[in-house]
Amino acid sequence: MHGTQPVKPIAPRQRSLIRAALALVVIACGLSLRWYGFPLGLPAFVVKYGGSLLWATMVFLLVGVLLPRLTRTQIAIIAMVIAVVVEFSRLVHAPWLDAFRLTTAGALLLGRIFSLWNLVAYAIGILFGVWIDRLVEMRRVG
Q1: Which of 13, 78, 84, 110 has the fewest CB atoms below 10 angstroms from its CB?
Q2: 5 found inside a domain
Q3: Domain count, the chain
């Protein structure tokens, strides 16, 4: 163990701040993809599922902001439950909910059309969030 430094864990408050900053970057990327993806000539598949992937990454990071003492696995499970609930909520058609989905905020937060493929994109996005979170922690500790 020569030359290794002791592992200094990141305090929960600092971890939350880092995750919040990462979430803001992910939100900016997601909005940019949705707003500029088609004008830049990106394929619809990339715009649609890239946005879903980034949405799930954001959910993972925000759950981590709110619950910094949980393990990444626990955060990922909660994020996936949220993603599944949101996706299946698209099968519910209450007038007030449909009206909200027609707004920009509603479309970005809840989406409009149910798709099992979104669940795949969400799972990949959450794994991406786990990877980013781990990478940042390794760089801060190392």
Answers
A1: 13
A2: no
A3: 1
How far from 67 is each of 28, 34, 75, 122, 125, CA to CA, in Å? 22, 28, 8, 20, 19
* Residue 32 counted as domain residue: yes
Q: How many Cα atoms occupy the beta-carbon half-sphere of 50 within 13 Å?
A: 18
Domain assignment present for residue 132? The answer is yes
In a domain, 120, yes or no: yes
pLDDT in tens, the chain (142 residues): 555 554 566 788 899 999 999 999 999 999 999 999 999 999 999 999 999 999 999 999 999 999 999 999 999 999 999 999 999 999 999 999 999 999 989 988 888 889 999 999 999 999 999 999 999 988 876 5
Global pTM reads 0.87
Range of the domain at 109: 12-141
- DSSP string of 78-118? HHHHHHHHHHHHTT---HHHHHHHTSHHHHHHT-SS--HHH
How far is Cα 52 from Cα 18, in angstroms, rounded to an integer? 22
